[in-house]
């Protein structure tokens, strides 16, 4: 049914989406690149002289950049490990026969729907606060010294909060994948004398690889841009201890009003995200085509 | 041959799964409970579980002091508005790609997905300055535009995976019965496409409701949706746990309930149809 006529109609129907996305990508991107080559601070009115790579060398040589880069990596990898491992374990648990499975699923999935600012504030105040938080009460109850999570281990605490938000997502997707696993295959393996561990590693794990790939891809997209959780808990501090790349660029542009340096940082963030994206897309391509 | 599962084993599974589930859910439960306490009870040590004097006072205070409903309404307008506009743009595109696939349809879809890889912070500065120049900062329209664009790829992808499952043969049958193109679309295809469109709408409202990068950076007092409204509680004055809890409960309740109904679509939507 794909006539010349319908092809033209199809192109016409697709073009608004394509043009909008293209505009959304290219116009701001072009502006970011342009600004990144200027000396441009909102606090200093007047000319914006062209300065070439100055903003880049300033941004890249700032020790905060190295810290932010490492923090970004730790945040992404830390949350990925916790959520994927936790998600597999929880998925296995929820895949068992039990009473009230639907309700347990609802309980487990709930954190995913909590907006980032709410979950960060609830954890920060009602759990991690060293004076009035539940963790502090629990520590005192056990005769231990309360621990000030967000000032003594800020990045770890944020990893914990973000993992709580994303664990449901990983669990739900891995559980869905597990439920599509052919039970007869598992039973046949059991009849042939395969123990629970070899059944898990030789049948379940290969079956899950596609779902795990998808979880990693999607979570990485979101985790590279973690922002709200940092803003409302630590403001990137103490010092730069919990500043990631997104937060650093935000601070340069909207707190220090340095449009030039902020834009250079934005370009760096885009380049790094693209490196990750190419890597991921290749991995995904391999896994999804199969 | 189904395996028999002893009820003892089932009981053990049940106990473990419920404990883990309640543990994960606990922060939400605790927030809801705290929202009904007085400020003094909210920080009592040892913590009070259920045995307190339940009060609605915090909800009243939150509404009076910071005008919760205004921000709630901003959230509704922004999330529903951006979803519906996105849908209007995406339906034709997804429709064409699903029913008249070309050689480059797959590439086009992958390219759309790749726009999601663009870190928002990379375009924060120009968007902020542009919005400042044309007066879109701190407006509902401004946020609707941005959220429509960032969620468009997801909407197209989701719709595409749903539309592709509509059997095309049914069109042939309708044509044999003498249906014109208009009848074809309205009475044959549309009814089959509606469930997919509904799930797409649901998922995107959830995503837009919880979006926190652009809402925090592009709004102030006027157009702030709930994500940004709650952030104002990050610099507390005096005792505020109970009020924070009440505000939080009101911010998450509507979407939590919607989310529970859309569990199944969630997996499919967020994995771009790769996991069903």
TrEMBL record, chain A:
The ABC transmembrane type-1 domain, residue ranges: 69-280
Keyword entries, A-Z: Cell membrane, Membrane, Transmembrane, Transmembrane helix, Transport
Signal peptide: none
GO annotation (BP), single: transmembrane transport
Cellular-component GO terms for this entry: plasma membrane
Membrane topology: Multi-pass membrane protein
Subcellular location: Cell membrane
TM ranges: 12-35, 68-94, 106-123, 155-175, 208-228, 264-284
Coiled-coil parts of chain: none
Pfam families linked to this entry: BPD_transp_1
Primary subcellular site in the record, as a coarse category: membrane
Chaperone found in the keyword field: no
Keyword flag Transport: yes
CDD domains: TM_PBP2
Family note: Belongs to the binding-protein-dependent transport system permease family.
Protein name: ABC transporter permease subunit
Organism, scientific name: Pseudooceanicola spongiae
TrEMBL record, chain B:
PROSITE patterns, sorted: ABC_TM1
SUPFAM superfamilies named in the record: MetI-like
InterPro entries from the UniProt entry: BP-dep_ABC_trans_perm, MetI-like, MetI-like_sf
One GO term (biological process): transmembrane transport
Keywords, comma-separated and alphabetical: Cell membrane, Membrane, Transmembrane, Transmembrane helix, Transport
Membrane-spanning segments: 12-33, 72-96, 108-129, 141-163, 184-209, 240-261
Protein location: Cell membrane
Residues annotated as domain ABC transmembrane type-1: 72-262
Membrane topology listed for this record: Multi-pass membrane protein
Location, primary (coarse class): membrane
Keyword Cell inner membrane: no
Superkingdom in the source lineage: Bacteria
The keyword Transmembrane helix is annotated on this UniProt entry: yes
GO cellular component, as recorded: plasma membrane
Similarity annotation: Belongs to the binding-protein-dependent transport system permease family.
PANTHER family: INNER MEMBRANE ABC TRANSPORTER PERMEASE PROTEIN YCJP, MALTOSE TRANSPORT SYSTEM PERMEASE-RELATED
Protein name: ABC transporter permease subunit
């Amino acid at each position: 049914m794909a006539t010349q006529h319908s092809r033209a109609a199809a192109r016409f129907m697709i073009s608004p989406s394509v043009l909008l996305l293209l505009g959304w990508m290219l116009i701001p991107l072009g502006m970011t690149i342009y600004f990144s080559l200027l000396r441009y601070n909102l606090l200093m009115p007047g000319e914006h002289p062209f300065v070439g790579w100055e903003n880049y060398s300033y941004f890249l040589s700032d020790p905060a950049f190295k810290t932010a880069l490492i923090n970004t990596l730790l945040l992404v990898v830390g949350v990925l490990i916790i959520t994927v491992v936790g998600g597999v374990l929880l998925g296995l648990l929820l895949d068992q026969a039990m009473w009230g499975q639907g309700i347990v699923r609802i309980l487990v999935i709930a954190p995913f729907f909590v907006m980032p600012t709410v979950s960060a504030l609830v954890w920060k105040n009602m759990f991690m606060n060293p004076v009035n938080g539940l963790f502090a009460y629990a520590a005192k109850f056990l005769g231990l010294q309360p621990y000030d999570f967000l000032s003594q281990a800020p990045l770890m605490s944020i990893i914990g909060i973000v993992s709580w938000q994303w664990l449901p997502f990983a669990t739900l997707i891995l559980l869905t994948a597990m439920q599509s696993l052919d039970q007869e295959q598992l039973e046949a393996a059991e009849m042939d004398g395969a123990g629970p561990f070899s059944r898990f590693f030789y049948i379940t794990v290969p079956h899950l690889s596609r779902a795990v790939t998808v979880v990693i891809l999607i979570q990485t997209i979101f985790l590279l841009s973690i922002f709200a959780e940092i803003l409302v808990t630590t403001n990137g501090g103490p010092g730069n201890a919990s500043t990631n790349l997104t937060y650093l660029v935000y601070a340069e542009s909207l707190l220090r009003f340095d449009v030039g340096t902020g834009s250079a940082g934005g370009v760096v963030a885009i380049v790094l995200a693209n490196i990750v994206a190419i890597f991921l897309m290749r991995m995904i391509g391999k896994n999804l085509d199969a | 041959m189904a395996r028999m599962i002893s009820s003892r084993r089932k009981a053990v599974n049940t106990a473990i799964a419920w404990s883990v589930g309640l543990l994960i859910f606990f922060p939400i439960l605790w927030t809801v409970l705290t929202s009904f306490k007085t400020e003094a009870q909210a920080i009592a040590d040892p913590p009070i579980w259920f045995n307190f004097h339940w009060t609605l006072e915090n909800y009243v205070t939150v509404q009076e002091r910071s005008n919760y409903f205004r921000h709630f309404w901003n959230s509704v307008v922004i999330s529903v508005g951006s979803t519906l506009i996105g849908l209007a743009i995406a339906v034709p595109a997804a429709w064409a790609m699903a029913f008249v696939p070309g050689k480059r349809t797959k590439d086009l879809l992958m390219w759309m997905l790749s726009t999601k890889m663009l870190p928002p912070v990379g375009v924060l500065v120009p968007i902020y300055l542009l919005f400042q120049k044309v007066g879109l900062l701190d407006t509902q329209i401004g946020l609707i535009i941005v959220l429509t664009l960032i969620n468009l790829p997801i909407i197209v992808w989701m719709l595409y995976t749903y539309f592709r499952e509509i059997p095309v043969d049914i069109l042939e049958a309708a044509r044999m019965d003498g249906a014109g193109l208009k009848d074809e679309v309205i009475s044959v295809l549309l009814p089959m496409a509606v469930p997919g469109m509904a799930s797409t709408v649901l998922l995107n409202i959830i995503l837009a409701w919880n979006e926190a990068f652009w809402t925090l950076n592009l709004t102030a007092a006027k157009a702030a949706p709930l994500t940004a409204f709650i952030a104002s509680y990050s610099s507390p004055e005096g005792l505020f746990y109970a009020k924070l809890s009440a505000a939080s409960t009101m911010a998450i309740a509507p979407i939590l309930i919607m989310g529970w109904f859309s569990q199944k679509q969630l997996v499919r939507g967020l994995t771009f149809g790769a996991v069903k």
